[in-house]
Amino acid sequence: MSEEESILSVEVFFCLILVTLFMHLTVYLNIWKVRYIHESGIIIIIGIIIGIILYFAWEEPAKFDASIFFNFMLPFIILSYGFNLKRRRIFRNISQIILYGVIGTILNFVLISWFSNLLSNWGAMYTDGGKTEYISFEESLYLGAVLSASDAICVLSLVQENKTPQLHSLVFGEHIVNDAIAILLVRSVKEAGFQTWTAGNFFSFVGIFCIETFLGVIFGIAFGIFCSFATRYLWELREEESKQLALMFYIAWLGYVIAEMCQVSGVITILICGIFSNHYAWYNLTSHARIVVSNSFKFFGDGATATVFAYLGLTSVTYTNQDISYSYILCMVFSLMFARFITTFGLSYFARRHTKNFSLNNRSLSLFWIGGAIRGAIAFALILTVGKDETGSEDDKNILHVTVLGIVIVTTLVIGSILPIWVKIIKPEEETSKVVDEDDVRRTLLAVKRDNFVVTQEDLAKPKSWLHRKWVEIDDKHLKPRLIHPHALEEQLKAQQKLEEKLKEENADVYQIAREIAEEGKEEEKTDLLGDLRKSDDR
């Protein structure tokens, strides 16, 4: 075995140890009630220590390969988000998620790009090597696009769904949309070419961004339908859970790869594919296969996330001190916080003025603001795609890389430690609507969500809009009969009829039934009836 292979083996060995530790810390930090540091921060610190030891042992620092991340890790993370999405809550708040996830991310991109260029022109990028570096306009756009990708892992672990359902759905939904938009922004900056600012470059950037977004949605719908067709017509695989898992997984991954080959957003493709598969292909699985597929996708996503955090620590010694500008990193962290503050409270003010169902108070918004200032794995992986072809020199490339790495480490460790304290101080809660009509409760119970869904008063009282009712009508009459096997539809209908009979019983306590279903949803093993009830239909 060559020395290079030996080093790689040692890196993989320590990386696997860190991933295993990450998975266990996720559970045991809650048991031990450790609130002041997130498991991702612990893994980064341990990774840095191991990285330093490896560097002094071989004088060859570990390296993070961005191509491996974008081809073998990111698809698993996004697929896990899409397939396990709690659509009822997400789509109820879809307008606000789009507001923060799309408009907010673009505003963050503009503000961070402006701040990074302004700070550079002021001479804030004073490196440890004794030089004052300056970045070009195009490089500031790369920084803005990369640093617009936030990381919500820490804040999601602190926000309780039963106490703050709207905040939880907004954080999760914005996180998914934000990742997709940030990746699109980086690609659009690359393809538009901003060596100099011109109106042509700007319109090219906007056009590329819009076209890739639209085509990504089309590709995602196409592969989601393909996955549903495959599980419907390959009915013989119904008893082969591993084959069903492989079929759904590889179709989604294939969609991601083909989209990237066609210069379309693979992230949006696999996200939409996961959502469609969850809505249609899920019915074609056995009740046990549903649990296997859902948990497997979550395992792939969590494993990929843990691997990235492990390598973040291991690769932190890749760069020399001469590349590091501590002053610029610190200034950019404050710039991120300020940009996030403007977009969070500015857009919230707009939402309050123009929508009726915006119920987040300032305490919840402050948590949304601080939690959204953390930068993580996506940001670091994105900056690694920016090479010397884009920056013009190896030194400029290294400066951008180490700046983003420093921001990721500082925000994860510092803000990640502040968040639990802030949650303890503000104690975010939401006022939920009172249930005034038992018919609303009955309708909601017939569409209750599986997978630990929490039935809140808002869920029970929220009426369906005209658009929602029309969608349900089209879905039931035209889409489901074509994408779901007849036997599976019959099972769902029987489950609905049984629940309706239960609700029609004399003196039936619909509120007690809601609580029972919520409790039953927490059980890992579900009966066929409960499985079909929870899926029916989350619309």
UniProtKB/TrEMBL annotation:
This is Cation/H+ exchanger transmembrane domain-containing protein. It is found in: Membrane. The keyword Transmembrane applies. The keyword Membrane applies. One of its GO terms (cellular component) is plasma membrane. GO terms for molecular function: potassium:proton antiporter activity; sodium:proton antiporter activity. InterPro entries: Cation/H_exchanger_CPA1, Cation/H_exchanger_TM, NaH_exchanger. Residues 26-423 form the Cation/H+ exchanger transmembrane domain. It is a multi-pass membrane protein. Signal peptide: none annotated. The chain crosses the membrane at residues 6-29, 41-58, 64-85, 97-120, 140-159, 202-235, 247-277, 297-314, 326-347, 367-387, 399-423. GO terms for biological process: regulation of intracellular pH; sodium ion import across plasma membrane. Pfam families: Na_H_Exchanger. PANTHER family: SODIUM/HYDROGEN EXCHANGER (PTHR10110), SODIUM_HYDROGEN EXCHANGER (PTHR10110:SF187). Residues 489-516 form a coiled coil. Keywords: Coiled coil, Ion transport, Membrane, Sodium, Sodium transport, Transmembrane, Transmembrane helix, Transport.
